[in-house]
Amino acid sequence: MSAQTSKNTRGYSPSMDFKNTDERLVRVCLIGNSKLNKMVHSLLPEFREVAEFTIIDSIFADALSSAHRLIEANAVDVFISAGANAFYLKDTLPVPVVPLRVSQSDLFVAVMKASAFSRKMLLLTHEHQLTRTVDLLSYFGDIDLIHRTYSTVDEARDIFQNQKQDQFGVVIGSSFVCDLAEKAGIPYVMVYSRESCRFLIEAAITRARVERKRQEQSALADLLLSKMDAPSLLVNRKGYLIAANPSAQQLFPDLHGRKRVPLQLPTIRFGELSDQATPLTIAERDYLATGSAFVLEDELVGRLYRFKPKVALVQSGVTKPVPKLTYVSAEMHHVIRLTELYAATPSPVLLQGETGTGKELIARQIHALSPNSDGPFVAINCAAIPLDLLESELFGYAEGAFTSARSGGRTGLLEEANGGTFFMDEVNELPLTQQAKLLRMLQEKEIKPVGSNRTIPLNIKFVAACHHDLQVEVANKRFREDLYYRMNVFSIKLPALRERLDDLEPLMLYFMHTLNNHYRYDISVAHLVKDLLPIFRAYQWPGNVRQLENLVERLLVSLSIYESIPALIEALPLIAPELVAAGAVSTEEAADETAGGLLKQSEAEQIADALRRFGGNKTKAAEFLGISKTTLWRRLKEL
After folding, report:
1. How far apart are CA 260 and CA 244, in angstroms?
2. Nearest alpha-carbon partner for 246 in 263, 265, 224
3. Rg from Cα positions in the chain
4. How many whole angstroms separate alpha carbon 587 and alpha carbon 592?
5. Which one of 35, 129, 173, 574 counts the least CB within 10 Å of its CB?
6. Is 353 helix (H, G, I), strand (E, B) or coil?
7. d(CA 47, CA 12)
8. Under a CB-based contact definition with an 8 Å cutoff, are residues 612 and 604 in contact?
9. Torsions phi, psi for 447 (to 5 deg)
10. Are the C-beta atoms of 355 and 349 separated by less than 8 Å?
11. What is the 3-class SS of 306-338, one letter each residue?
């Protein structure tokens, strides 16, 4: 067995213009024996611009093992072969295999060539080739043709050896059959032509392109669906399953590995699902199912099915889905009581709290409990949008409003939130010029897109959040006083994690159970929480609940390299040095200090330690500390 790789040396027919389709070369592997390989190899320079080739001079079992090595190395897009070898590989390999097709003209030309040797011919072909074409050979008149078919090379060998050689003077067949004739000293003509081999290569390149595009589309669909929390399924226009996110695969275990098949599940009539939510009970749990159509140029191209769990809270006789919160502390009970009360009003709500305390989660809770719960929830982080884009992002713009304005204009985020809830995080980062426009929106309940005279009435539940004391920002002239009082109709102060340590244990249990299931570990969560809790309670948690979740995941994954939980605890200085950093203080000590005292000193030391550890890389330091990069920048400014 031998293998060689060839890159082509010149272009080929402009009628097959793959060059502009994809810049990556298609990786084609030819598997056959020497005579076919030589013919195909002579054509390879024509395909230099679009493909690279590997040629394996082998058949059946030997060829199969070589093919699997290429597949495992991700070094092939498509295989090409001929005769029994092609159909054997096609039934065995997970990568597309394109067989060489023998045309009517190939056979006629081969017979004419063979007639120069003898009028008695043995035509030996694979059973899936040359079915009706052979009958046409009767028009050649005085040719004495014996046609035999085979399904395996062993069968082909037996037919050839058992056929009386005085019955034919020339053999026509595949490359393998020609080898048999050559060893027997009988003249032969290979039934394959250069033109058929050229067409084989072109067909393989086309098949590889189509398959690659399908895989990319499938991977993109998987990626998009994976970002959706609710179980979601994507089908094409024929109702064939294209993608299913992990939560859908858990909800419907029978879907595993069933891509490109009709979507059929018991008790669910997919054809009856529409944009209007339909209540369904699946695995003894209630869901709201929707089926959204994708339409392109008035033609249906697919559907997205989503199954949202129906988590109910009864309030004033109305049942509404609400986000999950984990707490037992009196501080959080007070927060939730205020949340439920303020959500029912049409006025703005201001959320204040440190980073990682769950401000967006409370905002979603307000949305779910508000009269606008059936509408969209639109969130924006003011610190994350460039100042020159902020106005157009918030209010939208009309066509031609500025040089780079796109045709038809753009809908602003406030308009997108119409009928629902608009959540503005880090509102203290809003420039003063935009604060004036936001004030007008809250007062007039309408907006005017940039460059437009049209006003758009709004019906939104407005929720703002910030990590600073806005009264201090007002006193320092960084925030408009009138906007502050307009937003601060209802205010909720979210406690830091160190201020509600009663929630530490249930939060640890929740995160550990969730991550334990996600990573499919078999860890004694209760034991781990019990051993970590005293250490966690003594820590200040500058990143609050977000930092807790990140740290729990780090420890849970790290446990896999340690023999036991005690060994993990002993290794904490290496795995989670922030927990045992020099200068870290207990909750009791922190309570005796002023806001600018020991607590800030501890945070400064932890931040400095993280920056030293990562050579000043603020992104990695922020990830290590369990806080956002924006928060790290802010803390550095404050130190």
Report:
1. 11
2. 224
3. 35
4. 9
5. 574
6. coil
7. 6
8. no
9. -135, 160
10. no
11. EEEECCEEEECCEEEECCCCCCCCHHHHHHHHH
Single-letter code of the amino acid located at 435: Q
**Tokens at 379, concatenated:** 């969130």
Q: What is the pLDDT of residues 38-85, one digit of tens each?
A: 999 999 999 988 999 999 887 777 778 888 889 888 899 999 998 888
Q: How far apart are the first and last CA of the chain?
A: 70
Residue 472: other Cβ atoms inside 10 A: 11
* Amino acid code (one letter) for 546: R
* Total residues found in the chain within this entry: 639
Only one residue has tokens 């059973």, namely 127
Helix, strand or coil, per DSSP, at residue 517: helix
Name the E strands within 310-420: 312-315, 318-321, 349-352, 377-381, 396-397, 410-411
Cβ-contact 433, 486 below 8 angstroms: no
Q: What's the CA gap between 249 and 615, in Å, rounded?
A: 42
Instruction: Give dist(CA 511, CA 505) in Å, integer.
Output: 10
| Longest Cα–Cα distance in the chain | 113
If DSSP codes are grouped into helix, strand and coil, which group holds residue 556? helix
The pLDDT tens digits for 314-359 are: 333 334 445 578 899 999 999 999 999 999 999 999 999 999 999 9
Tokens representing residue 381 in the block: 């982080």
Q: Which of 123, 187, 150 is nearest to 60 (CA)?
A: 150
Between the CA of residue 334 and those of 340, 345, 364, what are the distances in Å? 10, 18, 17
The dihedral of CA 274, 280, 282, 285: what is its sign? positive
What is the sign of the dihedral through the CA atoms of 427, 429, 435 and 437?
negative
One-letter amino acid identity for 119? R
Domains in the chain with CATH codes: 2-100+197-207 (3.40.50.2300), 104-191 (3.40.50.10660), 228-309 (3.30.450.20), 316-493 (3.40.50.300), 499-638 (no CATH)
Alpha carbon distance 128, 81 (integer Å): 14
Per the structure block, which two tokens stand in for 536? 């966690």
Summarised one tens digit per residue, pLDDT across range 254-312 is: 765 445 445 555 456 666 666 666 777 776 667 777 777 766 666 777 778 888 765 43
**Each residue's pLDDT tens digit, 126-151:** 887 765 555 666 666 678 888 888 88
Best CA proximity match to 425, nearest among 376, 473, 393, 378: 378
